[in-house]
Amino acid sequence: MAAIRILGIDPGLQRTGWGVIACEGSKLTHIAHGIVTSTAKASLGDRLREIHSGLTAVILEHAPATIAIEETFVNVNGQATLKLGQARGVAMLAAAEAEVPLAEYSPNRVKKSVVGAGHAAKEQIGLMIGILLPGCNVDQADAADALAIAITHAHHFRATSAVG
Question: pTM here?
Fold first, then answer.
């Protein structure tokens, strides 16, 4: 079985985390991770364009076979939830334009898949990333979350591949 590259995306208007892993059977390997940022004082449209452009460049550079993105959770602040949804939308558009299949996972499912508990703290996710991806040193919470999303998809992808 050839290694499958998976891009995980943790959408955000200020910082969109991304992480690329390779999945070969049960082996997971860290490829790259980072953050796409937008200019805080720019218009919303310009900020969304910056996110889209940054993710498009990541997709072109790393050529993932599949992409996984975190679903938007409803925040107490409706305006913040709406902006998060817009950032998520441009990330989904980048995947669609590249014609790469996209999967979506809830934040609780990601935490449960990586840590074993649906309400795990960000620190726990970071620690588990280091265990599940030996040699990966990620110090950005958004990139760690993106890698966790990619790992969640790898677990799901392996499970459905084993069945089919």
Answer: 0.91
Q: How far apart are CA 43 and CA 20, in angstroms?
A: 29
Of the listed 24, 46, 70, 104, which one is catalytic? 70
Catalytic site residue 145?
Answer: no
Known catalytic membership, residue 142: yes
Convert the pLDDT of each residue in 18-69 to its tens digit: 999 999 988 999 999 999 999 999 999 999 999 999 999 999 999 999 999 9
Q: How far apart are CA 3 and CA 134, in angstroms?
A: 17
Q: What residue segments make up the domains of the chain, in order of their start?
A: 4-163
CATH of domain 4-163: 3.30.420.10
Report the chain's mean pLDDT, rounded to a whole number: 89
The active-site residue out of 61, 97, 139, 142 is: 142
